[in-house]
Design brief:
Layout: H1 2-21, E1 25-29, E2 41-43, E3 48-56, E4 67-75, E5 85-89, E6 93-94, E7 101-111, E8 119-127, E9 135-142, H2 146-169
Parallel strand pairs: 2-9
Antiparallel strand pairs: 1-3, 3-7, 4-6, 4-8, 5-7, 8-9
Length: about 170
């Protein structure tokens, strides 16, 4: 009985270690590759943002191997549609030169629809042979256009002016 239990635990440890051997830590960094990108990423209609892909703790056996980029866009609220966001890469894959590396300025995210209040979850991955090595996500929120903000502010200022004039007349 002890041998069976020992074999099961050993098998479980081997499976856990094999799973962790295929993983690394990934993050989305700013366009210069100097630090983490802001979150959420805010894009107005037609605006784009360039970002970098940063990896840490990659196994030495995976250094120098090409990791193909992929992405997924998921609407995060009812105003969003999958086709509202375009993600492009300046080159199709990332080959880390060390256990910690950054692919600078490779990702471009574009808000093609410009729907106010739309939110998206974007997952960027770099992996080989269909295995997802790592992913990093950011929310993208559309900002309201100028008239959407300016009209209520102008209305409030107008009301303050009108009520101020009425008090002077009394």
């Amino acid at each position: 009985m002890k041998r069976i239990l020992l074999l099961m635990i050993s098998g479980l440890l081997i499976v856990c270690m094999a799973g962790s051997a295929m993983a690394y830590d990934a993050a989305i960094w700013n366009s210069q590759g100097t630090g983490a990108a802001q979150t959420p990423i805010v894009l107005g209609p037609g605006e784009s943002k360039t970002l970098s892909y940063h990896v840490e703790s990659i196994l030495p056996i995976n250094v120098g191997k090409a990791l193909t980029y992929s992405y997924n866009v998921e609407p995060a609220n009812s105003r969003a549609n999958e086709g509202d966001i375009s993600v492009t890469f300046s080159h199709p894959s990332f080959t880390p030169a060390d256990i910690t590396d950054t692919d600078i300025g490779v990702i471009t995210i574009t808000n093609t629809a410009g729907i106010e209040g739309a939110s998206y979850l974007i997952t960027i991955s770099a992996g080989a042979t269909g295995v997802e090595f790592g992913a990093a996500s950011r929310h993208v929120d559309s900002i309201p256009e100028f008239p959407t903000v300016a009209l209520p502010v102008a209305a409030i200022l107008g009301l303050v002016f009108i009520f101020g004039r009425k008090k002077e007349g009394l």
